[in-house]
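stage 2 :: seqdesign
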């Protein structure tokens, strides 16, 4: 799966750190042991010599000599192991205690990426998500469908049934997510679970190894604006990420402070991601007319024509939760 270069670099550094820590831990164990058992140094010299001699003898094809050297090395190893065990340590105490024994914290096994590297990439990606929008983790399992009224509302719709359909759609969307997944438009009033389901999708999609940007429109646009006007560290980092990430989740579109710059940026983001066929999820409290009033017909028609609309309904869940 494609991760951004920055995530990749940080994961590599993290593995390097693990490797160095493991090596340092091994050195510490070793130096403590030889304080009481200096004979270990002599045994290790024998092991090293045997290895060197082995290479030489192998090159010369001296079979008997090879056998003798192998035995010499094994004997020295066994003696060292005895000392380690006599001190009450496990046999492998002097091996380097790598976090991942499979790849010895290099992240690769025979040129293939090891699981531990993949896991580290995901963890960093998720940490990025939390940094951009420090919200608590939400999953599909804590989406409470029973909080939605089952009685028909004024439009003849049962909010519980509708929301159950939406939640099921979102679960399938997250499970089957790929770069060719459609874009979604979550609309409906505040407190109906739009953020919750967006985060639940985010959680699953990150688990699948995709890189994702999640944030409120307000936060993300602020960052883009600061960078654009030279008030951030980088000129276009946030905008670039928003244009390139595998999934962009723009929460609460319409709540941001609207300027010509934000309207143009929203258009740029929606249009560019449409052209590169990358999925986007937008959630908003605004109805289509309000969207048009705010972002012009050009932006709105793009959303309406290419996003799958999911209409959230019911009563403010946060209010209901408070009253339980
Ligand atoms: Zn590994």
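stage 2 :: out
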């Amino acid at each position: 799966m494609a991760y951004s270069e920055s995530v990749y670099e940080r994961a590599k550094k993290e593995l390097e750190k693990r490797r160095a820590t493991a090596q340092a831990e091994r050195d510490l164990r070793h130096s403590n042991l030889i304080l009481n058992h200096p004979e270990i140094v002599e045994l290790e010299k024998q092991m090293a010599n045997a290895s060197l001699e082995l290479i030489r003898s192998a090159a010369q094809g001296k079979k008997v000599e090879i056998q003798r050297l192998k035995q010499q090395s094994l004997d020295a190893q066994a003696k060292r192991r005895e000392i380690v065990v006599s001190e009450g340590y496990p046999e492998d105490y002097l091996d380097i205690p790598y976090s991942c024994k499979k790849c010895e914290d290099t992240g690769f096994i025979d040129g293939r990426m090891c699981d531990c590297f993949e896991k580290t990439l995901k963890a960093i990606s998720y940490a990025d998500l939390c940094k951009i929008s420090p919200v608590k983790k939400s999953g599909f399992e804590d989406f409470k469908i029973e909080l939605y009224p089952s009685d028909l509302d004024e439009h003849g719709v049962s909010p519980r049934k509708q929301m159950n359909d939406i939640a099921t759609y979102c679960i399938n969307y997250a499970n089957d997510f790929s770069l060719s997944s459609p874009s979604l438009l979550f609309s409906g009033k505040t407190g109906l679970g739009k953020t919750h389901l967006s985060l639940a999708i985010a959680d699953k999609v990150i688990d699948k190894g995709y890189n994702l940007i999640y944030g409120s429109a307000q936060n993300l646009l602020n960052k883009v604006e600061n960078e654009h006007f030279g008030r951030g560290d980088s000129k276009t980092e946030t905008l670039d990420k928003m244009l390139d990430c595998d999934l962009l989740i723009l929460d609460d579109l319409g709540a941001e402070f609207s300027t010509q710059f934000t309207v143009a940026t929203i258009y740029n983001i929606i249009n560019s991601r449409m052209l590169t066929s990358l999925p986007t999820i937008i959630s908003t409290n605004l109805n289509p007319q309000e969207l048009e009033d705010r972002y012009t017909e050009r932006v709105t028609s793009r959303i309406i024509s290419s996003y799958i609309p999911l209409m959230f309904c019911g009563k403010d869940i946060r209010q209901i939760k408070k009253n339980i």
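stage 3 :: structure notes
- The beta strands are 108-109, 112-113, 183-187, 212-216, 247-253, 280-284, 307-311.
- Residues 5-110 form one domain.
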